[in-house]
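STRUCTURE:
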């Protein structure tokens, strides 16, 4: 199918998304982030003490180059490396620094030639798992379990000017704070509970980032 309906959660109506108008340090860089799931977009729209707006768009993908980071061609480490290369991550230890450089050497994905990208969304609470993996606190299998079972949902990252031109505004849908903020909080609490459960358990048979770094040497 060449046409999709995408949703973007926000505090305001966005009839015409602005190319190069997003934050630089988001998951895949500067662009416009959407989802195919309206319920998830409603959670993203609300925030502390305020309701939100879900903006809906027709997205014509015909003629666009896209990268699917969830395809079998890529692993959780490819996806993680893309995030680490764009997110603002504090690297405080030599182990973490060596690990990050290892990932860049072996799992870098060149995203420059793509119009849009499909991949998992990492909420700030779930990004704690990425930091834990870089710090050698959890194994690859623990990272996969956290991300794949964390109900993150796929996001569509509109990247190029050509892709922006293919977005056509449909409508703006008000989102009630009382209905959706508790759902957002519940998802965040679930992530933090999962983080505590996983990081408090050592994966004795698992492969850690330090193991990969040592194997390369």
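SEQUENCE:
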């Amino acid at each position: 199918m060449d046409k999709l309906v995408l949703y973007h959660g926000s505090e305001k109506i966005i009839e015409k998304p602005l190319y190069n108008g997003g934050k630089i340090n988001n998951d895949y860089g500067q662009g416009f982030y959407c989802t195919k799931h309206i319920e998830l977009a409603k959670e993203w729209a609300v925030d502390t003490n305020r309701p939100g707006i879900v903006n809906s768009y027709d997205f014509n993908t015909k003629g666009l180059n896209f990268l699917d980071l969830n395809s079998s061609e890529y692993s959780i480490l490819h996806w993680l490396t893309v995030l680490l290369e764009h997110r603002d991550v504090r690297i405080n230890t030599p182990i973490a620094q060596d690990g990050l450089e290892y990932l860049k050497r072996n799992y870098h994905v060149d995203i420059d030639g793509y119009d849009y990208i499909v991949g998992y969304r990492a909420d700030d609470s779930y990004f704690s798992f990425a930091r834990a993996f870089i710090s050698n606190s959890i194994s690859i299998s623990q990272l996969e379990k956290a991300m794949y079972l964390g109900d993150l949902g796929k996001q569509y990252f509109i990247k190029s000017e050509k892709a922006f031109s293919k977005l056509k505004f449909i409508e703006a849908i008000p989102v009630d704070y009382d209905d959706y903020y508790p759902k957002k909080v519940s998802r965040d609490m679930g992530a933090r509970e999962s983080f505590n459960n996983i990081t408090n358990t050592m994966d004795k048979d698992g492969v850690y980032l330090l193991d990969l770094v040592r194997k390369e040497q």
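REMARK: The chain has a mean pLDDT of 90.
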